[in-house]
Amino acid sequence: MVLFWALFLVVIPLPVIALERRWGVALPVHGTASVACAVLGVVLLIAASALGAWSAITMTRIGRGTPLPSAMPHRLVVAGPYRRVRNPMAVAGIAQGLAVGIIGTSWLVLAYSLAGAVLWHLFVRPPEEDDLAGRFGAEYETYRKQVRCWVPRLPPVPISHDRAHGP
User: What interhelical angle do 88-103 and 31-63 show, nearest 10?
Assistant: First the structure.
């Protein structure tokens, strides 16, 4: 997770922000608006990072695995943030990218983050959902019908005791 965050939230965005400023195409944000962007961005970054960490911990504890293909979860995770949205890690990552764009007042980083969301939705989500349907069958299909992909469900989907705490 740290390597992912370092690459997509620092290594790629910082040169983009620097190039934007060097080329003179940066957003003209100054004074109070600049401070407001920094504060808003930091708050969003902290909230999104907390969501990402909560999602990873929940997947590790309950699913007994990770998002990595080499160590996929052994149980369907329908607890914690997964009760509200099917892809809380993706939501967290996109929000983190948007936060970095807001902090850096970079329209290119904002566009990069939104492009990442579109690419994830079109190319990563479908095979991931096919894999989950294949591994967890009807249980996943029920979950998929109850919990939206991107927009959090309020109130969260009810879960049974065994799904919340594992075997």
Answer: 160
CA distances from 2 to 49, 53, 93, 100, 104 (A): 11, 10, 12, 16, 20
The answer to whether 140 touches 76, Cβ cutoff 8 Å, is: yes
Q: What is the pLDDT of residue 134?
A: 95
- In a domain? residue 23: no
Cα separation of 32 and 160, whole Å? 48
Establish if 149 belongs to a structural domain.
Answer: yes
Torsion, Cα 13 17 23 27, to 10 degrees, reads 130
Domain count, the chain: 1
Residue 159: CATH number of its domain:
1.20.120.1630
**Rounded mean pLDDT of 145-152?**
93
Contact 153, 84 (CB under 8 A): yes
Which domain range does residue 90 map to? Answer: 38-165
Q: Does a structural domain hold residue 24?
A: no
Give the mean pLDDT of 123-143. 94
Of 140, 145, 159, 131, nearest to 76 (Cα)? 140
